[in-house]
TrEMBL record:
Gene3D superfamilies per UniProt: 6.10.250.620, Radical SAM ThiC family, central domain (3.20.20.540)
Catalyses which reaction(s): 5-amino-1-(5-phospho-beta-D-ribosyl)imidazole + S-adenosyl-L-methionine = 4-amino-2-methyl-5-(phosphooxymethyl)pyrimidine + CO + 5'-deoxyadenosine + formate + L-methionine + 3 H(+)
The protein, known as: Phosphomethylpyrimidine synthase
Recorded metabolic or biological pathway in which this protein acts: Cofactor biosynthesis; thiamine diphosphate biosynthesis
PANTHER family: PHOSPHOMETHYLPYRIMIDINE SYNTHASE, CHLOROPLASTIC, THIAMINE BIOSYNTHESIS PROTEIN THIC
Family, per entry: Belongs to the ThiC family.
One Gene Ontology MF term: phosphomethylpyrimidine synthase activity
Species annotation: Roseburia zhanii
Xref: InterPro entries: ThiC, ThiC/Bza_core_dom, ThiC/BzaA/B
Binding site for substrate: N69, M98, Y127, H163, S185, R186, G187, D226, A227, C228, R229, E265, Y292
Keywords, alphabetical: 4Fe-4S, Iron, Iron-sulfur, Lyase, Metal-binding, S-adenosyl-L-methionine, Thiamine biosynthesis, Zinc
HAMAP family noted in UniProt: ThiC
Residues binding Zn(2+), per UniProt: H269, H333
């Protein structure tokens, strides 16, 4: 092999198979794409051991991608049910699946995922370490944390969330600057607790070079975790969040020196008026590395509807530079999502991503909307269902209240503006009242 990672290949001017696939999918000039991968502005997460992957590129100038979180947990331990969710998520358009398994034989599910799923696979090794070692958190050693990273890399994981930004300095800043909701990142809270109990430095920060060696060997993309992402509007853009981001910017440069691909994880909960500024700050501090946002949720008051609060924030974030959206389901803050929640979350994220792609001028994005509008003008219901983002729901809704006249819908019936305009412009008489 003449290269280690996709970034290394791009820096050597090598057009890898993955680069060619991404350029073709995105309808993007391959030489320009190669330069962006070399610069770290586009990433192509694809572990050498994930043989069945269909590669995708992530970068603000490309189509916005979405991630779906799944995984086995104490309350949902059926591998087959979880795999069903994976397959339907991919069918519904998710480009990435994050396996957040936290119960039982997590390696079995992870390996199954890497051997069967063509989407990018992400994990959070911190969660797995807690399950894998079967011992109290403070007993886990620095080496054991790193061993889990290596195990995930060997299993074929394409990107890993590594909470390396919350070092002793960030933790001290967090303690000095009180927050309303402290640390809401699961991985962040675990590593913060470990640091508090052991008095040691964050092992992912302290041994970052060893993590880079693992990532370089397997071509694992680092998703630099945001332990200090705001968990409520009151904590948005505070000292802890920015302090951690500065550390992530420094670590990004160190990763790039070893040709390791990087993306940065972001907020969180955030008022709408702060989102664009946050995207700009991230882009500047993290040198243009792709931004992966977890929401942002634009209000705290909508449990049961957080797929909507996240879609609003995700659309604004993506329009302003974020390139990867983590889905949020209606079950967020309440319980584990079921299949319906997963579907609602994916559709909401896809709407946000597509709305942003239109605004960003991503080639071909508007064509989809044109196709729907053309079908609407013709009142061609079958064609509308075909191009709808959720054909099943569109078809079901129409069938639930069938119109008297087949060429309208029950919303306006005889008053159908589309039908009446088509007729009058065709020279027909439009009466409405007695039709
Ligand atoms: S009936 Fe009203 S809502 Fe339905 S297609 Fe016609 S104009 Fe649109």
């Amino acid at each position: 092999m003449q290269y280690t990672t996709q970034m290394d290949a791009a820096r050597k001017g090598i057009h890898t198979e993955a680069l060619k696939i991404v350029a073709e999918k995105e309808n993007y000039d391959i030489d320009k794409l190669c330069t962006l991968v070399a610069e770290g502005k586009v990433i192509i997460p694809c572990n050498k051991n994930h043989k069945g992957i269909v590669p995708n590129g992530i970068g603000s100038m490309l189509k916005t991608k979405i991630n779906v979180n799944l995984g086995v947990s104490r309350d949902c331990k059926d591998l087959d049910v979880e795999m069903q969710k994976v397959h339907s998520a991919v069918e519904m358009g998710a480009e990435a699946i994050m396996d957040l398994s936290s119960y039982g034989d997590t390696q079995k599910f992870r390996r199954k995922l890497c051997s069967e799923c063509p989407a990018m696979i992400g994990t959070v090794p911190i969660y797995d370490a807690v399950v894998y070692y079967h011992k109290a958190l403070k007993e886990i050693t620095s080496q054991e944390w790193l061993d889990i990273v290596k195990m995930h890399a060997e299993d074929g994981v394409d990107f890993m969330t590594i909470h390396c930004g919350i070092n002793k300095e960030t933790a001290a800043k967090f303690k000095r600057n009180k927050r309303l909701t402290n640390i809401v990142s699961r991985g962040g809270s675990i590593i913060f607790a470990w640091m508090e109990m052991t008095g040691e430095e964050n092992p992912f920060y302290e041994h970052f070079d060893e993590i880079l060696e693992i990532c370089q060997k397997y071509d694992v993309t680092l998703s630099l975790g945001d332990a200090c992402r705001p968990g409520c509007l009151a904590d948005a853009t505070d000292a802890s969040q920015i302090e951690e981001l500065i550390t992530l910017g420094e670590l990004t440069k160190r990763a790039w020196e070893k040709d390791v691909q990087v993306m940065i994880e972001g907020p969180g909960h955030m008022p709408m008026d702060q989102i664009a500024a946050n995207m700009k700050i991230q882009e500047t501090i993290c040198h243009g590395a792709p931004f992966y946002v977890l929401g942002p949720l634009v209000t705290d008051v909508a449990p049961g509807y957080d797929h909507i609060t996240a879609a609003i924030g995700g659309a604004i974030a993506a329009m302003n530079g974020a390139s990867f959206l983590c889905y949020v389901t209606p079950a967020e803050h309440l319980r584990l999502p079921n299949l319906d929640d997963v579907k609602e979350g994916i559709i909401a994220s896809r709407i946000a991503a597509h709305a942003a792609d239109i605004a960003k001028g991503v080639p071909g994005a508007k064509d989809w909307d044109y196709a729907m509008s053309a079908a609407r003008k013709k009142l061609d219901w079958e064609q509308m269902f075909d191009v709808a983002i959720d054909p099943e729901k569109a078809r079901r809704y129409r069938a639930e209240a069938a119109p008297e006249k087949e060429d309208t819908c029950s919303m306006c019936g005889n008053f159908c503006a589309v039908k009446n305009m088509n007729r009058i412009l065709d020279g027909e008489i439009v009466s409405i009242y007695d039709e």
